Structures are given as structure tokens and as C-alpha cells.
């Protein structure tokens, strides 16, 4: 048994061999087709493995449109499931984005759904997510499969039950078919671990695919999935969305069932909590996911869920959008500044949008406290898990410095909570005094970075600290006009200069996506999605 093997290298070798065996031989891509390519985005459609129907199913629709086709009986659930399993297998070979592969179970479930609801006689009484393939981050338990989170000590210990969300998605009619890669500790901006290895960015393999839900990001970019689910405690949905040029929504904590998700922080250290949310190829798919969840009985699946109803809200006629051009800690790089300006120019040209300048108070202090929450008991718990199979610390975890942060006393924990409550009041007042519908800002001071260099998450982490929902929207990619400029443009001190210096110009950052972030009120997630949809329709002319 894998669980009896103590060294992580032997565990990893056996686990990867199992992965490879689960990819059918006629779904394997000859390595010469992609080995030297930096950008592999075109390989799924040029490798010759997808037939015309599979190419159309996986390329031409977002989840909302595909769901309509499934419910109309245009294709069988089996056809759609096989198409996405095959494309996910291709994505895995190109980027190493998958962990657990259960294509056979997915196809078997698809056949059963087709028998229960024959394609030519499908009525209106279909489950909300009928036949829709959905991928999951590795940390979600799926019955019968490991929830290793890339740690050797948890390999060979399959889950006995589904996580709350996996169970709910199955009941809503979805097809679960794979889980995706993440970093050692689930806390870094590079999805790299000692069991599965590193996930590569399909747009530029020299840049990170992001973390901690980076496998999901790469899979979605290659359309091996069009709707996936990640978790976010400091930016883990939004960072990979930036790196891979997809939509990623961080809901308020508790709205989406989170029970049965493996977090690697010590049990009982309940400070800033992780939240589960969608990653997709369109904004309306984030809305589809959230609506489907909130209209169901989340309380039946997870005792910690917060049942906020979906109200089919309409955004008010004239949206008031606060704009924060930076967070006061790190200066946005040239392509990020251009992307934000490009979005703002389009919004200012619309009579239904009012732009209000905003300064974000005390971000540096709040993000320092966020890190303290992450390390409430120090690093012993992490090291103990690594030591069980003699695992070394991966470079990205070493780089962020989390393992060197000292633990906090009980009084220190109380003090953190007091400061966090005051910060929440301050930011609510900021939103209310300016009568804002949302705040628009960069999701990071940079695009995807070279490997193991994503060490700061103030632009995303602030909203985890405050528990405000936030969504990433792609708007462009690095262009030839995005020249590197002088370090004097870094406004906020030596740390800012160091981070700013990483942008060397468009050559190194070729094809890196440029995104914006839209932030709303806590527990007003539906209102945020509706407002963000208006902005997306203007910016991306959808």
C-alpha cells in the first residue's frame, strides 16, 4: 500500500504512475508536439486527438450555453463527459494540472444520467446542473479518491465520503471527473508539491500558473474544464485567475459549503477562514454556479454554511464604482496600470457608470495581521506533516517566509480579532459613505511572475481579511507597448522597488494575461456578481 511507503520520492513515483495509467493510450499526446513550446494553448485543437464534435463541445461554449445544449438533448451527457475528460487528459500532459483522475467513474455516471433522462425526451424537470462536467481543486474530498493536497503523508488514504460541495454538485446533476493540483501547504502562488510536481502556465511556461488553485487555472485556460471550483484564503482563486486569464470569484465565507475540504492549518485555529468559489471561462458561469448553490439547501450539506437566498436582483440604473489604482503597499507594473486605465476609459464613456476615486486605508497593517492569522500556532504543524515522509520544503513556500513567522499567544489572538473587527467597520464606512456598489482595482501589482516569485498577496489578501467577495475579470494581455520603466515609479519603499523590478518588459512576460478585480459588500455576493457583469459587458464588449 502507498500509505506504508514512508519516503515521499517512492510515494510520488507510484502516484504519478497511477495517474499515467488512467489516461487511455489513444488520448496520449506525442511529446515532440509540445516539448519545446512555451505557449501550448493551441495544442488541444491541433494534436489530432479531439474529433470535430469534441472540439466543438469543449471550445465553443461556456458552461451556461453548454448546459442549455445538454438540457435540450443536443448531445448526450456521455458525449460531453468524454469530450471534457479527453481534453483534460491533454491539458494534464501539457501542464501537469491534475491530481486525481476519475474519468471512468464520470463516464459511467454520464451513461446513467442518459438512461434516466434520454436525450430525445428531456423535459423541464431536470437537475439544475444536469450533465455539466465540473472540476475540483484537490483539497475537496471525493469519495474513493485521495485528498492528498500534494503531501505524501496523505497519499493512499482515499476519502470515505464526499465533501459537502461534491455531494451537493452531484445532487444538482453535475459530473465530477478530476481534481487539480495545488502547492505544498496550499498557501503559495505556485502550484508545486513533492508528490505531483509543478503545474505549468499554458500561456507561458516560464511564468507561474498561480496558486493555490493553479491546477484549476491551467485546466480552465486550456478548456479541459469550463467550470471548476477552488478555495481562497489569501487569493487562491484570484491569483490563478490572473495568471491564466480566466474569471475567478471569491465568495463571502460560508455561502458555498466548505465542509470536507482539507485545510493544512491546525484544526481549531479559526481566524481568517477559507472560502470555496467558482473559476470559469465567463462571468455568467460564476453567476450560474452561485445561483445553483444558493437556491439549493446548503444547510443540509454543511453545518457551517450561511444560507443567503438568491434574489434575482437587478443592478441599479447608475452604478457607483470606487476605483483604487493601487493598495498603498506595492505599485502596479506597466501592463497592470495600462489594463486598469483601458478598463476605466471604457467605463467613463458609459453614462450608467459613475467613477469615484478611493484610497484603501492601512492595507499593510491589515495584511501583516492576515499573515499572523495564517501562523497562529507557528510552523510546527506544517513541518510535522512534511516530516512523516521526509519531504523538503518547496521553493515557493520557502520564498513567502510563512514557516518563519512565530506563533501568537492567546492574548495576541484576541488582539488580532479586535483589530480585524475595527478594520471591518472602517471599510464598511468607506463603502457606505461613498455609496459604492463596488470597488474596482488591480488583483495584483503584476501579472503572472517567473516561477517561485509570487510572494506578496496584499491586493487579494485584504479582502480575505475583511471577508468581502471579490471577482477577477480578464481584460487584456501583456503587449509590446508595455515597456519596463524606471524604478523611481515604485512609490512605496525598498520592498516595492524589489517587486517592481521583476517586470523586465514584454519579452519575458509574453502572453501574460492582464486582469482587474471587482470587490463588493460582505454577504452581498449576488449584488457584486450583477454589478461585475455590467462592468464586464462594457469592458470586454460582451
TrEMBL record:
Record-annotated active site: 137, 212, 236
Keyword annotations of the record: Hydrolase
Gene3D superfamilies: Amidase signature (AS) domain (3.90.1300.10)
Domain Amidase residues, every copy: 80-528
Pfam families for the chain: Amidase
GO molecular function: hydrolase activity
InterPro entries with a match to the protein in the record: Amidase_dom (IPR023631), AS_sf (IPR036928)
UniProt xrefs under SUPFAM superfamilies: Amidase signature (AS) enzymes (SSF75304)
Origin: domain of life: Eukaryota
Binding residue positions for substrate: 186, 212, 233-236
Family that this chain belongs to: Belongs to the amidase family.
Protein name: Fatty-acid amide hydrolase
Organism: Amylocarpus encephaloides
Organism phylogeny: Eukaryota, Fungi, Dikarya, Ascomycota, Pezizomycotina
